[in-house]
Amino acid sequence: MEDLSPVRRDAMFESELARNVELGLEPSGGIGCYVHGTPSRLERWHYHDEYELQLVVQTSGRTYVGNHVGAFKPGSIVLISPRVPHNLVSLDAPAAGVDERSVVVHFAKDLMHKAAELFADLQGAVSLLERDRCGVEFLNADTDLHDRFRLVQNSSGVARFCALAELLQRLSRWPEFRPFSLTTMPDAPGQRKAVMDPRVEKVQALVYRDYADRLSLAKAGDCAGVGVHALSRLFRRVTGSTYTDFLISVRVARACELLSKSDAQVSSICYLVGFNNISNFNRHFRRLKNMTPSAYRDHMAGRFGAAAKPAHSRASTAQASTSSGRI
């Protein structure tokens, strides 16, 4: 049985400087591009200040973005918003690994917005970036989109900016997409879309980082600088979800990652992600996933086959906590 106790639970902040030094690359006009294989030290639960656009070239596995858990395969394209914790974990890589798992593009969060102020034709790209708070997954992408990804990779300077702008424009018109966010509030007829409040963003960052701790509404209110009743109303108005439901959804999403990536007992995972008893954990898990944690593990093992747990994927098990904090 795998011991998860020493594994960190919190998402690691990845600074632009550290990433470029690590990879030996320099950004070009606020746009950085690199290739990474699997296994890789870049496969970890982390977040950063830039947008991330990722094309999966080889292997299949699972996508973890905020409180979303999904799947990817060769050809998958994902757009992840700044400061949103995420990780793409390959599950069927050969024992020797692969040299090129993904092509990854990072670009400054205000790059396209500033460019659109001077060149109105870029509004399509801006609208794409504002489509969802967490990001967007593009389905059934064609070879043209893949080729344009490679054009960004193989260009530099102004040419790279132009290639990225055209790729984002085309993605903004792509008809098959799925937002990552599970807490987007539908707009009422004639109502303007709710704008994310910085106080809510602070609370969400707290949950992503310390989800296994005792995160009461009072503690979240202290983080946001507002009272519990005001935060409760604000959080629901902005996200369409209660604070407690959001916290539970993040914990369940992290449990899904541990269930699929480790052999840890369900009872151990229950406490690692912040629940105080197994019955409470099972109840919330079944409500959100329509199956028990054990059934989910069996389902994912059957979906990805016997090769779903290579040794190297266990080494990169999602950051879990030994904290005693519970709900």
TrEMBL record:
InterPro entries: AraC-bd, Homeodomain-like_sf, HTH-like, HTH_AraC, HTH_AraC-typ_CS, RmlC-like_jellyroll. Pfam families: AraC_binding, HTH_18. Residues 201-299 form the HTH araC/xylS-type domain. Coiled coil: none annotated. Residues 307-327 are annotated as: Disordered. PROSITE patterns: HTH_ARAC_FAMILY_1 (PS00041), HTH_ARAC_FAMILY_2 (PS01124). The keyword Ribosomal protein does not apply. Residues 313-327 have a biased composition (Low complexity). Keywords: DNA-binding, Transcription, Transcription regulation. It comes from the Bacteria. This is AraC family transcriptional regulator. The lineage of its organism: Bacteria, Pseudomonadati, Pseudomonadota, Betaproteobacteria, Burkholderiales.
